[in-house]
Amino acid sequence: MTTPLLPTIMVAPNGARRGKADHPALPVTIPEIVACAADCFAVGADGIHAHVRDAEGQHVLDAGLYAELMAELARAVPGMAVQITTEAVGRYSPAEQRALVERLRPALVSVALREITVEPDSRLTRRFFHDCAAAGTAVQHILYSAHDVDNLAALVADGTVPGGPLQVLHVLGRYAAGQTSSPSDLAAPLARQRALGLQADWAVCAFGPDETNCLLAARREGGKVRIGFENNLYMADGSIAASNAARVSDLATRLADRQSGPR
User: Is the pTM of this model over 0.85?
Assistant: First the structure.
């Protein structure tokens, strides 16, 4: 079965950890996430990386809440791709992560390689990835380092992860001092990806105020981007962004200006 491609600009509006205390415009409830998605779609985001929260505002891998969110997004922004997350946040096991995907069978899902492979039975991990491929669920492998790239290549080589074009997200700055990134952080993981011959539909997300420059660098190298309050609250000029849509609009404008060239 053919799996969908990654969106070019995927907004990540909330993530697993931030809340209203971090920014009043960060969406937490399903109506807020849907409204945010529509605003971001209108200014250039063609996909959303979605986290759902429980009644206390805590990140949860809840299939019922995800099903509700996916249905509301399909109604409000039918042209927008939706990717759910399996992020563990130190709370969920590989079995619980797999169960969410197996119940929902979404078109797009993000899976941190270093989380899902904690499963001691490699046969279960292999079956999970192959079942996703058979169902047409595109798994985006979340990679935090060049070492993670090596591990993904090894899993492809031994058949745990099906061959063919992969989906990858290179996360820049997650474990840097102060959780900040710079465009140079992309060099090592991207070089490893290319040296290992991994055919990937790849994207980048970046933590901290230099998010914009990191994402522009990724686009120059042929990658796609994830942007939003999950990773960064700042505009390129160092000011606090008014909303996720403001971040998307700024990036989309910069990309369009770059493509059009000097006037």
Answer: yes
